[in-house]
Amino acid sequence: MRFAAIALTVFAPALVACEPTIDQSNRPETALEFPLPDRPVAEIISNQFSNEDARDERNEAQVVMDLANIEEGTTVADIGAGEGYYTVRLAQRVGEDGRVLAQDISREALQRLGRRVEKERLENISIKLGKPDDPQLPVDSFDRIFLVHMYHEVTEPYAFLWRLWPAMAADGQIIVVDVDRPTDRHGIPPKLLFCEFDAVGYSLVEFIERPDIRGYFARFERSEARTDPSDIKACSNG
To answer: Are 184 and 208 in contact (CB under 8 A)?
Structure first.
């Protein structure tokens, strides 16, 4: 499935050679070859059903799916799916010929989502438990990977993005929806977002500020090569 890329003037990322001096004792062993982010990481917050009506009132999911060119037959990974606000709406949009994989690192959230999927009889959804530094997605599988209001909660962003790379189909894209504010306030400044993606080997295709969804929409695709882990430099939060 091919979609036309949208030209955009890309902000020049500012990389720093030094890595943050943070205690690495609690890091997964599989993440140790990657740098830590030089910024706070937000604590994970619950995605409860109670806010879905408010999100639908501003037509959030429909706006984002339209911007991301989600149509019948699209394959989508919803990372940080929580209890499924986007998952169920994506499943309805992509139809019988499409597939949605809902991934989260919370087993409890996925159990609740599983009950919801079963209750709503959504047969084109699969569910998978991920890891903080590895979404554990199948290779060459997704036209779109959604990171909606969750990237600032990823504790190992460089390892996480590096391991997303193989899961993308040939013309696949990563869709980020977030808010322009500090990461410890559950957002991420666009310039910092662009830098972290660029550091791993992604290119920014499109960036749009969207007050109607209370945030911004960003679209990335793979550059010519994925950066070797030893060559990734943490982006400055200054």
So the answer is: no
Rounded to whole angstroms, the maximal C-alpha distance in the chain is 51
pLDDT at 46: 55
Residue where the block lists tokens 């060559």: 231
Sign of the Cα pseudo-torsion (41, 104, 83, 109, in order) = negative
Higher pLDDT: 199 or 214? It is 199
CB under 8 Å, gap of 24 or more: what pairs does 193-197 form?
193/151, 193/218, 194/10, 194/11, 194/13, 194/218, 195/13, 195/14, 195/15, 195/235, 195/236, 196/37, 196/157, 196/158, 196/161, 196/235, 197/161
Between CA 224 and CA 84 the distance in angstroms is 33
pLDDT higher than 80, residue 21: no
Confirm if 159 and 194 have CB atoms less than 8 A apart. no
Name residue, tokens 């929806």: 177
Q: Assign 209 to helix, strand or coil.
A: strand
Strands in 168-178's sheet, in edge-to-edge order, are 125-129, 99-104, 75-79, 142-148, 168-178, 215-222, 202-210
**What are 59's two structure tokens?**
């037509």
**Closest to 236 in 3D by CA, of 8, 23, 39, 58:** 39
Answer positive or negative: Cα dihedral of 238, 145, 165, 218.
negative
pLDDT per position as a tens digit, 150-207: 999 999 999 999 999 999 999 999 999 999 999 999 999 999 999 999 999 999 999 9
With beta carbons less than 8 A apart as the criterion, state whether 185 and 224 touch: no
